[in-house]
């Protein structure tokens, strides 16, 4: 689960890159509300191209019409655009039309509509085929041709007038002779009637001023001499090759490794034609001749399409159909980096991408295209195809592999192009021109246009290019020719090969692809996004946040049921997920954690496990009526039922906190967990809060009346709602602008959910799913009355097993019911459970006459445990009503701690040295954890009882018994409740010093006594951390949730008590003191040590005798390293084989201080105790409190209970009726 959560977290962090959020569009592009970029011409063209349909909203013209730029009539039909007739008075309906554009900028248009580069005009070659490019003025042998094609006579040269654009008709050598300074020429010079004519050696050309020679850059020629890379040098050049190729001669690059093969088809079989052996090697028998072939070299897979509408895959002599119904496939190619397929479909006029496993295909491009041949260059994320445009226009197009950034590379009109192929290593595209009988080529960036004119003598069928060779087939068979000597054609074999693909590992070079680790079901490399890819889905599926594709699924709830419906094509599948006796007001689903959350009618938040059916309660600071799950961080956001508090509950740590306190009313919350935003609807404003918390920012003022709900579409980053008249209104949070969906599109009822391109509405107990792109009604789903909410199902979900509700400690579940009651309701003589379960097994009389029955009638304890300062009854009744006068103490007999323990600062109790500075408070005054400072406890004997003698009787000193406190400088005792109660009870005001008015950290809880601040997570955790216990007062009867599947875990160095309720340090186990409430830490301990072992003085631990006095402490009380000295004559008592000396006062004191027990042997049980004088001050023993001005002791439960128990009403003073801060 942690791996899944981590994977989802990585996916959710990269989602902004995957979906296009935050990207900037170019000047000729239009940005959708979801951030995607489209060609500007697609905006308001009558067809929805954005997933959310936003390109067809707020348009000046109705659907089916486009706007004129400035002229009348304002709007014209889309069918009138580029029809050759002007409907707009400004003619804008005929602007930028393909047939009007003719050729690309930099081209010259022939009479037959063929486009050629301008530098081929009047170059002496028949590039247009009809010779229209050479209808120029004829130049004689002494004439000059200007760059623009004009021909100058000999008299026009050096006539003092500039005729050529480059000034070549007026060179600096006009009127000069070669006999004088070589006529000004840098190299050769020939005298002419107009002056000196300069010439240059090979590799150089004459400059425009006609005197000096410049280097010819052979590498910049349209079709340079090098196959791969060219480096220009003065007067020459040199070539080098890509990896995997070697240079032969000066210009050729030959592939290393295997011989070249051709993938082709022959007589119902797909196979290889080996160019070395000229043998055909069969791969797979097929039923129909292939229309297109493709291969994946690294995966040893082969693909083909036939005229029956099937696309096949073959691997390891096994074949299967990947896709059915693909009639009209013209070209099929493989993205060898991802294994995905691309193909063109002439029937649907579209380009598609499909998964190699046949799991689904999607449309890449289907707008304003009619694709023929198709090739890919995945290592540069590029897609190329020959496209039929309007009229007779044909172009060579290029785009990213996601279909974006489309542009025309070459206009091929009137050329009859076919058999587009790609030389991957040379980065050149090649195709056959049937009209020109030529092979045409251009670089993948659009430069380097070149034509191998009159190459074919008869029509060619297919073309392949690899290394330095052209390969093609015609009616005679297979041929080849070197590219640098195209006239040297060689016949290879008489065969009919309608399809020809060069099969070599260098045709599919290895490279990194951003799609490999994308997690997408269908991944499209892109040129725009920083991530380098975008995810897409089949047309009938939705893209999920993790990149997967799912059929549209929506979960909806009534007050007692949770349901799911799925649109699987035209099929509707409805599923009942769960039923509950609770009343759901709002719900959401944690799709990665498999929990269903809902708020019920009482404001309690519950959650059910989709895996186990277990139910739990979720703590919130206030009753909550709206819930929403953060799918990334797994937190639950909620809105209180009083609509003033917005908070979040951390589900990992189980504590809630407040995010925002409203000054008015928050009507709803909208959680954008993908982008870390929380939106609130407050007082007619949409507010935005950045997560995990911050100050709200106003985003939008809602105008007009909102009908039904406002919903957030995470996919398109928009808010949607209905206004009066069922007009759909949409706010783009990316653009911070609002627009109407269109007056002609009314969505009746309330908007319930949205996930582009789908929209869900509810009207008359029917859920309707709409497609926002074309505003089409996709499906109507009857659901019945009482729909609470509809959400998009982000992942697959199964039917939930019957829920097993649980109550979390300290609550108890009634038998045969889901009702939870407090433990105080057990055995209270009132029937709280329906079947009276809470009053069963109650004790009316203890079985042993000497025992004490707890007030809750559930337990009997030994009488000796009553009023011992520690509660043993569940309700603490064994410590209530204890004697008002504490046991007498005398200054002559201070509390003595036995060996291994030390006295707390208040002198009231002893703790083990091993419990000092161990991170847990054992002294009531906390002194065992004070002054730790990281230092070790010195091994001294200063903690032993004093051996000095005292007078027999000393004047008694007044003391106050806990929980009372003595005022400074007086003998007055006050209750702890009088501390920091704003009343001055001590003469010097000591009781109101060091009081906390405000916690230093805003998220902390201030105890009621104003003496301590604790973390908010410690409030109502079942254990009191405030001195007055106020952090456990007023808690809900149902505690914070704990899962039966997640028992309490102890940190390292601790272990779990048997009751599973708490942890104790390993060092506290078998140390002689009970730390677990069930006493299990002192059970199953060894009572006696074996021979050769030493028993620690305090507790029951045994260690090896050799470890005694070895300088290392093994006993927790350090008794194994104490008194490690030779006994002297002054020693009062030696024990433990003379290895220990103890004071005389330790003899016969009722405690065993020697391991061998010799200090308690031979003692007189009737030995008189030293005289003790009673104290002069009467005190109350904890937890009782003494009434002011009297000796009456009352229980703390009698304080502020509205009943006057003390004579002067002291117990009802300083009671708080209302907290000053509303949040506490």
UniProtKB/TrEMBL annotation:
Keywords: Disulfide bond, EGF-like domain, Endocytosis, Glycoprotein, Membrane, Receptor, Repeat, Signal, Transmembrane, Transmembrane helix. Coiled coil: none annotated. It is found in: Membrane. One of its GO terms (cellular component) is receptor complex. The keyword Glycoprotein applies. Disulfide bonds join 25-37, 32-50, 44-59, 82-97, 103-115, 110-128, 139-151, 146-164, 827-842, 867-882, 917-932, 980-995, 1020-1035, 1070-1085, 1109-1124, 1148-1163, 1200-1215. Residues 1-22 form the signal peptide. One of its GO terms (biological process) is epithelial cell differentiation. GO terms for molecular function: calcium ion binding; hormone binding. It is a single-pass membrane protein. Residues 215-254 form the EGF-like domain. InterPro entries: 6-blade_b-propeller_TolB-like (IPR011042), EGF (IPR000742), EGF-like_Ca-bd_dom (IPR001881), EGF-type_Asp/Asn_hydroxyl_site (IPR000152), EGF_Ca-bd_CS (IPR018097), Growth_fac_rcpt_cys_sf (IPR009030), LDL_receptor-like_sf (IPR036055), LDLR-related (IPR051221). Gene3D superfamilies: EGF-type module (4.10.1220.10), Laminin (2.10.25.10), Low-density Lipoprotein Receptor (4.10.400.10), TolB, C-terminal domain (2.120.10.30). PANTHER family: LOW-DENSITY LIPOPROTEIN RECEPTOR-RELATED PROTEIN 2-RELATED, MEGALIN, ISOFORM A. This is EGF-like domain-containing protein. It comes from Hucho hucho (huchen).
